[in-house]
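so my prof wants the structure for this chain in the tokens format not the other one, which i didnt know existed until like an hour ago. anyway here's the sequence
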Amino acid sequence: MRQGSVIFALLSAALVLAAPAGASDWLPHPADATWLYEWTDSAYNGTPTTEKVTVKEQKGASFTLAWTTEDQANAADAVETAGQMVFQETSSGLLVADWSSTLPPASFPILCARQSPCGNSLSSSLYNVAWGSRTPLLTEPVLHGSAWTATGGAGNDVTSSSTYLGTENVTVPAFPMPVLAAKIRSEISQAGALGDPYGSGIRTVWWVYGVGPVKTVFEHSGGTAAPVTTVALKATSLTAKAPPPNVNWFPLRKGLKGTLRWTNKRHFAKPAVQKFEVEEVVNGSARIGVQSVSGPIKAAAAYGFTLRADGLTNIWGTSRAASLAKLPPLGPKALPAAKRRHFHTPFDLMTFGFNPLLPAYPSAGNSWAAATAGRDWSVYGVTGTTTVLGVRNVVVPAGKFNALAVRSTVRQPGFPFGSGTRTMWFAADRGLVKLEFRHGDGSVSVVELVKK
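here's what i got, hopefully its the right format
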């Protein structure tokens, strides 16, 4: 390393978000893991620089990766750098909590409004992965249509808008035979830095499950001669894995709408027809509004859902209704009648019981049971089990779908209408298309999508 190198550090506030059960394999970090990256910059680092990355520390939901160019057989004129980056695993994805490193070379653009102090740098492989995407770096689950915004930089002065483009085979020195990677494209903006427009541009990162980022291409702003930074994985101790399925069975996409028809021949003669729309989406959580179109139940309702690494969860619901249909009461007995839930809309039937509605990456055979403590138990007082049956063909008035079938057995003691067997069908990039709830009182509720 150069004599007199100065270490600069960013001390960031602690992020107190719980990690999901099981560490993510999008960036695994066993204690003995190593990565060897090589990076170049067409304007500021024409000589390839090799950096060795190791796991320095693991503590709870956070882990620290350290890098160095020392003893990596780099050319004399290659960039010399060393540092560390602290990551945190949360239910919403992977965050960058902190970093520190040697100062970037004097020839690199200054990525702050003032030359000193400046905690921003793009002179390492990990900095190019994390630039502008500190919270979050990678959202989870990684599903079709996933998109998110993030901030970064020492003063959160860099913004990014990222989109998951699907999977793609990629070849790098560490994997001369192509491996399947998740491709993430980010549009990055920085304003006010002395080094503008180097801090802005388009970055694409290829993430391999079981390994982490294996390739990064950052096309900086600035016209036809603008610099391009390229990072490639040369070697690693880790083994590539097939990524989990990326099908989104319940998309929280603003503007998604449809019309559902609910029948229960024992309790109301005419169908209750209601329309829904995803009205707002923020950081992987959404509000879905429901309005009556026709039928005996006149309802206006809204529901909150969140999609995280621990699955799709209903977090709240509210409704107002006037009904000509007299439906049997629901429990639990522990709540006064005025506080108990009602079946006013198909979403009430869908969310009744316990969470999650779906795992993050559902597959046939997944099964989970209701808890006998916590929020869902207090609200519903339901016991039971949910099982993913697999993909099935289903035909409803809105069309024919290959849908994920999910079956729940629910029991609400003393309330047969809140007990029974519920089967739901979710279509890719569409959501709920059919539901059949065989209630304990002998009646059957059937919900079908009649209009997209």
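also thought this was worth mentioning. The radius of gyration is 26 Å.
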